[in-house]
Amino acid sequence: MSDPGSANHKPVVSIVKCDNYESISVSKAIRSSIDGLGGILQFVKPGNRVFVKINLLMGSKPEEAVTTHPAVIKAVIEILEEAGCKVIVGDSPGGPASKGRLERAYKKSGVTQALEGTNAELYMGLGGIRTPYPNGKLIKSFEILDIVPKVDKIITLPKLKTHMLTGFTGATKICYGFVPGMAKATYHSTLPDPDDFSDMLLDLTQLINPTLAIMDGVVGMEGKGPSGGEPKKAGAIIASTSAPALDIIATNLVGLDPKDLPILRNAISRKLVSGKLSDIEIVGDKLDTFPFIKFEPAVRKKKGGMRIPRPLRRFLVKRYMNKPVPSKNKCIGCGDCMRACPRECIQIIDKLAVMDYEKCIRCFCCHELCPERAIDIK
Ligand code: SF4
Ligand code: SF4
Fold first, then answer.
1. 176-202 tens-digit pLDDT
2. Is the CB of 338 inside a 6 Å radius of any atom of ligand 2?
3. Does the N-terminal peptide bond of residue 226 adopt cis geometry, omega within 30 degrees of 0?
């Protein structure tokens, strides 16, 4: 694990059209995207143990576009197994961790089924190990999944989605899944400001330093992502060794401005990527040959709300930020939001989630993890 390159060398991003999840189309597009970067043997060697880190979030049906599509997972496993690798597939979803919950999430998302006919294993670990990262800008040591030091390579499979807290979830944000289960809540609680949270994510991505990211941008999510938005076709598989460069291309493809997205805004100010398309070598299909696509952004501010200066945000968050509001008709009182809330400010009263808005830090974990999509942002 070492620091990835800076904006001084030109990162390469491979983008290939793919407009459906039929296995032949997906496999062809992924193979082509990897070939654009020099072929799979540039990244792995026969005999390598490779952890394929998917976007599982909480477990959701593939057509809801919350999780990495099983067709993408299967295609990547097949490519790695053909290259002679031992593949382990997994994630650590948000909320309290348990084997049963993890198993249900893998099944519901079609991940278990994607492994059928392959020799890949599902990662069922729940534990973390404390790992120092002295080069971190904000965080100097992380608790990360115990699988990380046990594999030779890590390949991430992010989904192209908007995100209520960080604006966008892609090749950088997927690394948050390397923080096990409820340990994630600590960062939400201590870093409620999206810019600080994004700096932590950039530190974590540098620590993990995945060998390669292959984004499922066939159908992404717009609006109130990463789970409460609407599926929308973007028609692309995008691959790169540089997470921020991949995210710049993906956001450009769907009409999101990096300046509005804390992760990319911070990546640019930290010179991990320049933010200019001309500073990225794009291979595969030309960007201007994709149809015009505009994703609805995830909006955290109240209508008409201004951008609040950073030092004042923690004091004004309640006034200017939207809040999570459970629906009486949809909430079943399951308590998942209550268990995931980093501020312990949700109670279940008469089978309805009730928030204490004075304590709420607007992290939107409850909205993100509600299995009934019962929490709106208003
Ligand atoms: S809001 Fe969602 S997660 Fe919370 S109790 Fe209701 S159904 Fe469960
Ligand atoms: S109520 Fe929801 S948005 Fe507020 S702190 Fe808890 S999880 Fe975060």
1. 999 998 899 999 989 988 899 999 999
2. no
3. yes
Place of tokens 């809801």: 64
Q: What is the DSSP letter of 301?
A: B
List Cα–Cα distances, 101 to 97, 105, 124, 238, 250, in angstroms.
7, 6, 10, 30, 31
Confirm or reject: Cβ of 50 under 6 Å from ligand 1: no
Residue 55 confidence (pLDDT) above 50:
yes
Provide the pLDDT for residue 300.
66
Q: Kindly report the backbone phi and psi dihedral angles of residue 183, in degrees, each rounded to the nearest multiple of 5, phi listed first.
A: -60, -25
- Between β-strands 230-240 and 281-284, what pairing exists: parallel, antiparallel or unpaired? unpaired
For the segment 359-374, the average pLDDT, to the nearest whole number, is 93
* Residues 199-252: tens digit of each pLDDT: 999 999 999 999 999 999 999 999 999 999 999 999 999 999 999 999 999 999
What dotted CATH number matches 310-377?
3.30.70.20
Would you tell me which CATH number, out of the four given (3.60.15.10, 1.10.10.10, 3.40.50.11440, 3.40.50.300), belongs to the domain 12-289?
Answer: 3.40.50.11440
Closest CA relative to residue 150, chosen from 175, 169, 129:
129
User: How confident is the prediction for the chain on average, in pLDDT?
Assistant: 92
Question: How long is the chain?
Answer: 378
What is the spatial distance between Cα 76 and Cα 68, in angstroms, rounded to a whole number? 11
Identity of the amino acid at 101: R
- State the pTM of this model: 0.93
The full set of domain ranges for the chain reads: 12-289, 310-377
Kindly give the number of the ligand 2 atom that is closest to the alpha carbon of 362. 3
3-state secondary structure (DSSP) of residue 161: strand
- Residue 368, ligand 1, Cβ within 6 A: no
Residue among 338, 369, 370, 378 whose CB has most ligand 1 atoms within 8 A, to mutate = 370
